[in-house]
Amino acid sequence: MTTIIDVAKRAGVSFKTVSRVFSGEQGVRPATKEKVLKAARELDYKVNTSARSLRSKRQHLVALLVNNPSRNYSDDVQFGAMIGCQNAGFNLIVENPFDEESLARLGNQSGILGVVLTPPQSDDVALIKKLQAAEIPFVRVGTEMDIDNSIRIGIDDRQAAFDLTQHLIGLGHRSVAFINGPPTLSICQRRKQGYFDALDAANIPIDRKLVASGDFTYASGRVHAETLLNSARRPTAIFASNDEMAAGCLAAAYKLNIRVPDQLSVVGFDDSPIARVVYPSLTTIHQSTREMAQRAVEILDHLNKADEGNIEPVVLPHRLIFRESSQKAP
Questions:
Q1: What would the pLDDT profile of 34-65 be if each residue is shown by its tens digit?
Q2: How far is CA 176 from CA 204, 268, 314, 324, in A?
Q3: Of 19, 86, 106, 287, which one is least surrounded by beta carbons within 10 A?
């Protein structure tokens, strides 16, 4: 079945522009409108009247899709989206966890302005295609995967991981382990590449035995850290791809009577609240998850009011936060 995305590709415009043409909104240039209508005729596109009737009502709801094992991350994005909605006069609905039933409820919900997708949904191509087919605007948070006719917002995860690994190398560490998140996520692929880049830049051979994949939970960080710290070639530093896994690494070190940071440096990622309350406090990468979610709501508001055209990916700055958990290699 032909969708609005097919029409957008044929006409060479955004799917939002196509939606505006079929909704009869003002402000679309005549030449652009003609291109869209011509593409629709060529593809025999049929307007989704049921979806149109829903959107013809006053749009005042933003849906936040959350299905992340990290409680700190989920709380941060929810808070940021809530602030964005308060500023714009919208209401926020949260689906956590998100599943097929959630998608069905979303499709039947009137007044939807748009959807904020968080990892892993922000990399879920099948879900994104369903939202596009239903002509529901969305913004993808915390991803670097490029998908046609979609808007993403995040940081440069590869550079951030490079900076954090380089920090450990600068402290004299030559055996740096890396506990990544789910390898299917684009940000995890980028973070691993940044880790490799830093090792390569320092002429340190990559040891695949020092690389593990967790799932962003405290438990997975603890399990992988125990394995690494019980190995014959025990690392002097561990870079965990989020703060919860890094906290798990601290617990593993305590269990094995390994002092942090005297005998082992541990660093995390995100600068979530747990990074500041554990002991020793975590050296980490600060990224404003709350700001990402807030900006995502602002982008949805802009899309609802904008004339036409795509919004470029939004890349926010990151910074290294140096705390007690890292010091010079023993």
A1: 888 888 878 877 665 444 444 444 458 899 98
A2: 10, 13, 31, 17
A3: 86
